[in-house]
């Protein structure tokens, strides 16, 4: 049984996809999608030996070793040309790590730019959106969900002839999430407001105050207040 978080990630995978799940850990997502016949092939990438072995075990146990390959590799280095990957999922990591995995993959030629990217950053979502915008990706959909007292965002993007540039505010909140403002979104930003106010108080107590940091946090707090009004 997949978590709600991974279900939302899986829902964005196109039918028949050739999937690379990077940072796959236990390989739950590719195994579940293969068992329901949603994907035709998958690569699970893991950089740490323990999770790599647990992914392998899961794939073998599920009888899917002929359709799901598990590789010990850093980021998109798990992908080979002949895999013909058309969808990449990177879930359950920080946005900065996701962004560096994508950036390295681009530099090393493992990211063709034709893949659908389904990204689920635990924190630092704005970094992910900023990278996507810089690289000419368009955000197709965004989801936000609460599970086990945590709030998760899922961002789906593809490279297109981008028509509209996101504003800094849209990068911060997510363009679709900001337009929708559902109850999970409002809850997240109420929590963030509280956390940022605490950070601001701490910064203002410090002897050497990093001016740009204070300005950035004040801007974010102003946006949050606007959104929560
Ligand atoms: N994707 C699964 C999920 O969402 O439930 C597992 C998330 S788990 C918290 C993050 C996994 O990413 C860990 O198993 C970690 O070893 C792996 N990881 C971290 N950096 C990585 C990298 N550069 N390349 C491949 N895997 C990485």
Order of helices and strands: HEHEHEEHEHEEHHHH
What's the CATH architecture name of the largest domain? 3-Layer(aba) Sandwich
Q: What would the principal axes of the Cα set say about the shape? A: elongated
User: Which superfamily, in CATH terms, is the homologous superfamily of the largest domain?
Assistant: Vaccinia Virus protein VP39
Strand content: 15-25%
Give the termini distance in whole angstroms.
Answer: 38 Å
Q: Give the overall average pLDDT.
A: 96
How many domains in all? 2
Number of strands: 7
Q: How does this model look, in words?
A:
The protein is of the alpha/beta class. It folds into two domains: 4-164, Rossmann fold (3-Layer(aba) Sandwich); 185-228. Helix content is 46%, strand content 23%. The protein contains nine helices and seven strands, in the order αβαβαββαβαββαααα. The protein has a seven-stranded mixed beta sheet with strand order 3-2-1-4-5-7-6, sandwiched between helices. α4 (95-107) packs parallel to α5 and α8 (183-205) runs antiparallel to α9. The protein is elongated, with a radius of gyration of 19 Å. The termini are far apart.
Write the layout of secondary structure elements.
Elements: H1 4-11, E1 17-22, H2 28-35, E2 39-46, H3 49-61, E3 68-72, E4 87-93, H4 95-107, E5 116-121, H5 125-134, E6 137-147, E7 150-159, H6 168-173, H7 175-180, H8 183-205, H9 211-228
Parallel strand pairs: 1-2, 1-4, 2-3, 4-5
Antiparallel strand pairs: 5-7, 6-7
């Amino acid at each position: 049984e997949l978590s709600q978080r991974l279900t939302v990630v899986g829902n964005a995978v196109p039918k028949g996809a050739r999937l690379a799940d990077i940072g796959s850990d236990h390989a739950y997502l590719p195994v579940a999608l293969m068992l329901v016949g949603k994907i035709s092939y998958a690569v699970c990438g893991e950089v740490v030996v323990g999770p790599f072995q647990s992914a392998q075990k899961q794939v073998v146990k599920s009888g899917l070793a002929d359709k799901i390959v598990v590789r010990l590799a850093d980021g998109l280095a798990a992908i080979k040309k002949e895999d013909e990957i058309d969808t990449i999922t990177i879930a359950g990591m920080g946005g900065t790590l996701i962004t560096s995995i994508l950036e390295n993959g681009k530099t090393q030629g493992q990211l063709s730019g034709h893949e659908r990217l389904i990204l689920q950053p635990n924190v630092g979502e704005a970094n992910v959106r900023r990278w996507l915008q810089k690289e000419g990706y368009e955000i197709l959909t965004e989801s936000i969900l609460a599970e086990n007292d945590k709030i998760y965002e899922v961002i789906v993007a593809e490279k297109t002839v981008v028509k509209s540039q996101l504003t800094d505010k849209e990068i911060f909140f997510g363009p679709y999430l900001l337009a929708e403002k559902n109850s999970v979104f409002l809850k997240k930003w109420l929590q963030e407001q509280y956390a940022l106010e605490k950070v601001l108080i701490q910064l203002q107590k410090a002897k050497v105050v990093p001016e740009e940091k204070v300005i950035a946090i004040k801007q974010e707090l102003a946006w949050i207040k606007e959104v929560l009004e």
